[in-house]
Amino acid sequence: MAKVANSLLITKEDDLYRISMTPELQDVLGNIAYIDFTEDDTVDVDDSLLNLESSKAVMELTSPLAGTIVSRNDEASANPDLLNQTDASKNWIVVLDQVDEVAYNALEDLKN
Predict the structure, then answer these.
(1) What are the residues facing 37 on neighbouring strands?
(2) Residue 87 exposed, middle or buried by CB count within 10 Å (0-12, 13-18, 19+)
(3) Residue 54 in contact with residue 33, Cβ under 8 Å?
């Protein structure tokens, strides 16, 4: 199951929620040159997940859900253009745990 919020794709797998950029956001940003993850291990709604610089913008990506960050895409720190990939195993930002499922279910469903 996948949802969309804040131009981010949220995919639920068991009790984990993987957050990545939507293809539309990837197109708007262009090539990503630099990212800086938040150092916090817990986030609330609208807390920063990362700051990024791309060929078209400088922006902060904020969390659509509250939860605990259990994994960051550290590979993307060294190679930010991974976030431009279409492969979901490479373009993810963070994985959250301890997310309120009611809040997740309230997000917009992904339209194919």
Answers:
(1) 50
(2) exposed
(3) yes
Cα–Cα distance, 87 to 36 (Å, whole number): 21
Beta bridge partners of 35: 52
CB atoms within 10 A of CB 46: 11
Contact 49, 38 (CB under 8 A): yes
How far apart are alpha carbons 78 and 43 in whole angstroms? 23
* Dihedral sign computed on CA atoms, order 82, 53, 64, 68: positive
- What distance in Å separates the CA atoms of residue 39 and residue 75, rounded to the nearest whole number? 16
Provide the pLDDT for residue 88. Answer: 82
End-to-end CA distance of the chain: 12
How does pLDDT run across 6-41, given as a tens digit for each residue? 999 999 999 999 999 999 999 999 999 999 999 999
Q: Which residue has the tokens 């639920």?
A: 12
Residue of 63, 18, 70, 65 lying closest to 41 (CA atoms): 70
- Share the mean pLDDT of the chain: 94
